[in-house]
């Protein structure tokens, strides 16, 4: 879920930047810029957390039995940090594991099914790494999918069942999470993009957490001396600061 959350935050940042590029009022630009900085800061923190988890992976719980290897005992570690991209033919998954290229070929395998895949990297520095990705957004050709090992990297090539089909997300779960939480941009009936953005900010305020509400309310309050009144953007009652 951490990887899914990171992908969701990246999509939020991209959409906010798209709204910023169309905004014309300085007040709206300020509000969007504040939220973009907040999301980007959260992305950096989450990336650092993922990096620490990858570098300082602890032995799994007692429910995961250690696996013996020639060099001693190995513990199962779930991979949580990876990236993905796509072309017309493939969905490519990139996994960074230091020194993975030094392992024997038999230590690395990947199981493919129509809507899932699971990478196994065994006996790498006393750990058995595995990356399960279930509920892929679309079907893949399990028989034609494969992987390659590069310096410190494993690249998994998922062959799309439908050539040139665009995947909006890697998994169905990520898509549902994003669609549920992403603010909806609805064009204004009068065709004014500024009004549409105002409506979006109103929704962000109503649906946001306390920190989001404070951020929007403070930014709004700092612009009260301008000619534009708060009546331009009907919003629910805000906390006083």
Give a short synopsis of this structure.
This protein is α+β, with helices and mostly antiparallel strands and 241 residues long.
The arrangement of helices and strands along the chain is: HHEEEEEEEEEHHH
Largest sheet: 5 strands, mixed
Query: Looking across the biggest beta sheet, what order are the strands in?
Result: 1-2-7-6-5
What's the number of helices? 5
- Helix content bin: 25-40%
GO molecular function, one term: tubulin binding
Subcellular location: Cytoplasm; Nucleus
Main location: cytoplasm
Protein name: Calcyclin-binding protein
Structural write-up:
The protein is of the alpha+beta class and 241 residues long. Helices cover 37% and strands 23% of the residues. The chain has helices spanning 2-22, 26-55, 172-181, 193-207, 210-221, and strands spanning 67-69, 72-78, 83-86, 90-96, 108-113, 116-124, 127-133, 146-150, 153-159. Strands 1-2-7-6-5 form a five-stranded mixed beta sheet, with no helix packed on it. Strand 8 and strand 9 (153-159) form a beta hairpin. The protein is elongated and about 60 Å long. Residues 61-71 have low confidence and may be disordered.
